[in-house]
Structures are given as structure tokens and as C-alpha cells.
């Protein structure tokens, strides 16, 4: 069991007892900011041993030395921890349980390995780090860890304590790990307190503000959550379904904690939802766009931050190494060491075929939802550039489709739609589609983007000629899509067209996104909606990414049989748009059943097992939680069921 502490673009994963052991892989722990681990060891011992855990919660934990009924522990250890921007703060209180004084030896084993998150993931990759040097120095109240690589990368982590440690010594002959030691004398039934502060300073940043005690940090965070999650309109006032309202409230609380800093076109500071924890607490184009779109009717300020942040990161030149092209919307923005040195392409990576049309969809949706055209006016140049990218480089021009090619050879993504894992875009026999791929749901996004941007051009930018051009392109795309993607034998759209324009015939949940975008005819919409509710697709908890029974189906695969809440949210919005209200309600009920089994927090993804195989949803082993678009999914369900 682990504990997650989040705040200000920083997070920590600890054991239930508050320790950090420096783990790698799916169970990574540590203190993280800007894609780097700034604390890899944080082990508390008293009198030479780690005290057993009595109880643990998000707020803290209680520990005590081993004892018996006749000789109970002489003291109890209360640990409270909190994380805020660039900092971890901890308060350790020792409480004497005896009617006589007691001497307690406390030690804290600390280290900072400064590992990049891409090193920690369980994908068996290694990265050379020439000239990298880690050092540690004593300070007046603790220690300071430094990490230098070349002349352009310098990070540090400082650990301070009140009272200052009595002794500081190396934990071993090698490495930088240190042991901080204190000797406390507890009065009879008295207490002793230790305040600990960790400040993380990634390369290129300034030292964060000292956070104060955990109680103060948590008080500020709780006030921020109340202000955001409790603002009007409140979900509880908009539905008579209390479980849905509860999932919405949890989602809003999670979105508050996932907010990270970003910057707009004029350098203005913004706060927007990072994609998720542990691997994705960064700006992701597709994730941030869909998250803010789901939340738009209730918290439009998210879209008002996401749109200018993505406009500021929009492509301006041709850079094949990171797939940048003029007008293209960024896929993700990373700040870690490996991105800085070009060892991963994700520093500013444009490997997303769908973020650009979704940017246009959200821009018009924000104007429509708020009635305020100012953001659409301000971002007109970026919106026009996005349109031109679709026609020029995306492949839409001359009667084409938006397409992408695998970037695997350069260390990037094989697939560049939302199902971006290797093998996700496959035929019914399991073979991966190859060549320049045109994925079905992306063409739906493009159709919606053309229709919406034509409306912006006509009503906001006062450019009737551009509006006419985009409306004609949308009508042409809709007609061609029906001809090229519809599979008459299956009465279902193809997942994609491969590089030879063959229909990629796996039956996939992506078809449900077409209900949302409006590219299908009404008769086709009903066929797709009904098909997605059949047992091979609908598990009882949600719609699977691939229908069961096909060769590539795997209930524990990331994109070939699992169930994604945000994928289902788009589908439910589409079902509601098409008037298929009964089907929409059925899927929504399944998702809320799943949320109830996860303390009302929907994870990134759950396994594809049906409720006939197991009565409760089976967790996916590597799911991020909280994750932004899963957190916003209940808000999308609320919108769909209210329409």
C-alpha cells in the first residue's frame, strides 16, 4: 500500500508509513517535480528499527515500536506530511507513553538520485549520462544534494530540520545517501517535535518558497479544493443521482490537485490540468483538451487556460526529430534531464495527429458555452495556422485524410491517436496496421473542427470566404468517410485505413467517437450505438477498447481490450447527441459502478473483464490515478444525461 501526496505540479509517493525506498518500475516512489525524482530515500527509524505501522491515511500515519500486552511501547510516532510546489514538509511528533522520561534515538536516511522519470519506467531502456556527477554537502540544518551534468544541467535538493540534526554521516561507503540523527529526551507523558523540509530545485528553476508545516499546506490545499470543486454550478444541484454527483465532486477535487503551471502566448502564467500521476504530470495536448472539454459547462476556466497554453507551444517550424510542423498542436511538453539532452524526443513533442483538430473543437466550444468570443478572437492566428496544418501537412488536402506514420525508429510513438501504444491499431487477426495511417475517430474530430471553425470564421472573424471553404471541406470529408470507412458486412466503421488504403477491420471503441463528432448518417449512428452495447463490447462497467472474441483482444492490454473511462465519456456524449439516451444511461451506470469501487475516483483504465467474469471491476495493473480525463469523465456523463 502506498500514499500519494500532490500539489503545485509536485507529487510524492511513499509507503503507508511515510517512507521512500527509491523503487523503480510500476511501483516507483519518491518526490517528483518536472519529470525528475528529487528524493529517492526517506527512511525513518527510532532506536535503530523502523517502527511498525498502526494506521495510515492521506493526512499522515501513526507508528509505534513493537510491544506486548504486558510491556506496551514506551512512545508513539505521529508523522504528518504534505507536498506543495517544489517541496515536501513533514512534522514528526514523538509522544511518550510512560510516567517517566524516555530517551529516543531518531535517524532519517535520506538520498536524492535525481533520476529522470523515463529511466524509472519498466520498459527496459537505459540512457547514457556522460559527465554526470552527484555530490552531497552538509548544511547548518541538514544536507544539500547536487546533481550536475555538463555545463547546462544543475539540480539540487536540500533537506533542513528543526532542531538541526545532532549528527550527519554517510549511509555507506559509496553514493550520496546520508543519515541524520537526533537524540530526544521525552518527559513523562511528554512530547518532542521534529520539523523537516525538503526543497527541490530542478535545473533552470529558482528555489521554492519554504512551505511551512504540513497542517498549513493542507489547509491551503483544502481551501483551494473547496473554492474550485465547490463553486457553482455544483454537480449535486444538477442531478438527482447522488452517486454521479459524488463521482463528479471527487473528479473536481482531483483536477484541483493536478493543476500545473504553464505559460501563454504573451508569457502569462496559467494553471491547467496535467495529464496524470505518476508518469504524466505535464502538459499533454490531447489530454488537456478533452479534460477541459468535459469540464467546460461547469469549469470553463480550464479551457481558458489550456487553449492559450497550447497556442504558445504550437509548432512554428519543421523539426523532424520531434515531429514539429507549423501550426501543429503539441502532444506533450517535458522538462526533465533526458528531454533536455535530446535522449528522449518529448521535451516538446508533436507526435499527436488529433490534438490539432481537438484544439479547434475546444476553441469554438468555449465560445459557445461562455458566450464570450474574446478568446476566439485572440487566438485567431493560431486557429488559422492549425487549420492550414491539417490541409498542408496533416494530409487533409486534395481529398485526403489526417494521417500519421510511426515514429518508433526515433524513439517516439508508434501510434499517434489516443490509442498510442504499439499494436493498438490492428486488424481483426491482430496484425498491426502499417504505413501512413488514417484512424477513424480522428477524421470525425476533423469534420467537427471544420464545421466549428467555419462557424468561428463566419460569426467571430467575419471571414465568409473562409467559412465557405471549411464548410465545403467538411461536407466532402463526410461523404468520403462513408465511402471509405464503412464496412457493410460488419455494419460498422473501420478502425483505420492503412498505408495502402485497406480497411483496418478490428471492431474498436473508436467508432463511438464518431457519434460525438457527427460525421455518420443517422441510420449508421443507431447501428453503431446499438453495436457498442452488445456483450462483446460492453462489460457491465464500460465499453471495451476492442470487442471481445477477436484475435487481438486482451483484457489486460493497454488499448486492445481494456476499458478507458474517458473513451467511454466521449461515447456517452455521442450517444446522447444521437438521441440514444437509453444506451447512454446504461454506459454511464456502468462507469459509476466502477467509480464506486475506486472510492469514487475513476482510474485511467480498468481491465476488460465483464461483470459476468467477476462481480467487481478488475484493476488494470499500471493505471495512472488520479488522471485528468478520467477525473473529468463524470462531468461528461452529467452533461450527457442532462441533455
TrEMBL record:
Alphabetized UniProt keyword annotations: Aminotransferase, Transferase
Coiled-coil spans in chain: none
Organism listed in the record: Nonomuraea aridisoli
Keyword Transferase appears in the UniProt entry: yes
Gene Ontology BP, a term: carbohydrate metabolic process
Domain Putative glycogen debranching enzyme N-terminal: start-end pairs: 6-196
Domain of life: Bacteria
Domain Mannosylglycerate hydrolase MGH1-like glycoside hydrolase: 442-597
Descriptive protein name: Aminotransferase
